[in-house]
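Readers outside the structure-tokenisation community will struggle with the description of the input data as it stands. What matters is that the chain and its backbone geometry are given together, residue for residue. For illustration, here is how one protein appears when written out as sequence plus structure tokens:

…
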Amino acid sequence: QVMSSVPSSFSGPVFTYFAVENGTGLVDTAAGQPLMGPSGLEAVRSVLSESGLRPIMLDRPDRPMAKGVGGGVRPTGVALVPCNLAPRSKGFVGIIEFVVIPHDVPPLLPVGLLENLRARIDLEKDTFSMQSQEGQRVSVQQTRLPSGHRSMPFCATGPDDLFLSKEFSERYPDIKLSDFIEPSEYKSVTSSRSCVVSSDLS
């Protein structure tokens, strides 16, 4: 939510900020890559933990600076996050690689991801539709924040949501499905999902 309470007579600097619900990300057509700050990562970790899952944090010192309107910043690493972008519909599961920066930025779902999903955004109905692997379109309801931003849930909801695409396995050959499961919840997982969300969306 947008927070601002400034007397009309005040002439100093004004800081405006907003918050999103844990486990949701901002649909951001201006973002070039999946991005989040440390507080966003902790919120994602908390939500995934409730489903017996966890993200994987990698240092990736070769990652270039994240750049935007406000300039550039050196990432602290990347987080591999199990995702399900349509929790009430089959498909759209995978691992998204989020760049983590040392600023409080909520998770951003960028234009590259939207293109990959052949997304259509209806601002009047606040819906986000995606094309399934079978060619059908699946709609997800977005939340309209007071700031005008749209957010939507993206975290996986359980081990059945885990899926490693061929592209992901080639990029991270040492990472297994079980690495995303909390040790206390570990069990052999075989995903019945057939939909692939590319892991390289930067």
